[in-house]
Write a structure and sequence with these properties.
The chain has about 200 residues and is of the alpha+beta class. The protein is built from four helices and eleven strands, in the order αβββββαβββαββαβ.
């Protein structure tokens, strides 16, 4: 094979690769599937309001540090990330019982970021790519509203969701163009904690 034939073969192979890539389609995401646990799990960056009954001096609003812990009056470096509000309240009661007789604690999450594995991340051609705290019954449309929709360069119907279920990663195809431009509600699937929405750029 001479030099000219080699170049032609390489160009043909490259063209086939591009065409194959453009034709790749992922399985459609299920419109409904098993619902995730409903209880919100506290994450680093959240703010929590802690009320200790009859003890306002040790009550207040406190941030969860990047290491997942928080510090309140009389309680230092308590693990908060990965706990529900109820679980954290019981942990604080246990810690405060050394200083207060039978403390009664209420915890309310007031600033939501969520634990890393319960966030929904949006990358690619979104108007504002970002990580969002997962909310119960969150849909694809909810996510698109939160990130301001897609850019003019987005290939909406070639978008995909990367989802991990039982330790196995699966990629699903989603139809953003049909949902946004055509109002096709059948394309509005349910999101799940940990989902990554990938919005590619259109080359045409």
């Amino acid at each position: 094979m001479n030099h000219r034939q080699s170049i032609a073969a390489l160009l043909a192979l490259a063209a086939m690769t591009v065409l194959t890539g453009c034709a790749t389609r992922h399985a459609a995401a299920p419109v409904q599937d098993a619902a995730p646990p409903a209880d919100y799990v506290i994450g680093a960056g959240d703010n929590v309001s802690i009320t200790v009954w009859r003890n306002p001096e040790v009550s207040g609003s406190f941030p969860v540090r990047p290491d997942g812990k928080l510090t309140t009056p009389l309680v230092e470096d308590l693990q908060a990330s990965g706990r529900t509000a109820t679980e954290l309240a019981r942990d604080i009661e246990k810690a405060l019982s050394k200083f207060i007789q039978q403390p009664v604690v209420t915890v309310i999450v007031t600033g939501f970021v969520g634990s890393y594995d319960r966030q929904v991340r949006v990358i690619g051609q979104a108007a504002r790519p970002q990580a969002l705290p997962y909310r119960r019954d969150m849909s694809l449309m909810d996510v698109l509203i939160a990130v301001g929709g897609v850019t003019e360069f987005a290939a909406g119907n070639r978008a995909s969701i990367i989802r991990t279920v039982n330790g196995k990663q699966t990629t699903y195809g989603v139809r953003l163009h049909d949902l946004i431009k055509k109002g096709d509600i059948s394309a509005n699937i349910k999101m799940r904690p940990g989902d990554v929405l990938v919005i590619p750029e259109s080359f045409f």
